[in-house]
Amino acid sequence: MSLQANRSRLAGLSKDLNRSWQETQDQWRDQKRNDFDEAYMRPLFESIENAVIAMEDLDKILKKIRQDCES
Predict the structure, then answer these.
(1) Residues 6+ apart with CB under 8 A from 41
(2) pLDDT tens, 4-49?
(3) 3 state DSSP class of 19
(4) Which of 18, 34, 55, 58 could be joined to 7 by an S-S link, Cβ 3.0–4.6 Å?
(5) Distances from the Cα of 22 to the Cαs of 26, 54, 63, 65, in angstroms?
(6) CB 63 within 8 A of CB 7
């Protein structure tokens, strides 16, 4: 599986998780939910976003390397 395919899969799974988390928040409305969101979910989504950006950057670099090697 290519880096781009893995990036797309990670982004898609993150969207699915975010949607499920939003549904959970509709039912779970107390301070513990807020604490859980702040301690676990927000950092997780930020990490995933950073990973997706890094994968995009890495994909660009790899494409450039391939082009340079073929020239």
Answers:
(1) 21
(2) 899 999 999 999 999 999 999 999 999 999 999 999 999 999 999 9
(3) helix
(4) 55
(5) 6, 26, 36, 41
(6) no
Burial of 4 (0-12, 13-18, 19+ CB in 10 A): middle
Instruction: State how far the Cα of 35 lies from the Cα of 29, in Å rounded to an integer.
Output: 11
- Tokens read off for 20: 């499920």
Q: What would the two tokens of residue 25 be?
A: 């928040």
Asked if 41 and 21 count as a contact pair (C-beta separation under 8 A), the reply is yes
Global pTM value: 0.84
The answer for residues whose C-beta is within 8 angstroms of residue 15's C-beta and 6 or more apart is: none
At residue 61's C-alpha, the angle toward residues 59 and 64, to 5°, is 110
Query: What is the count of structural domains for the chain?
Result: 1
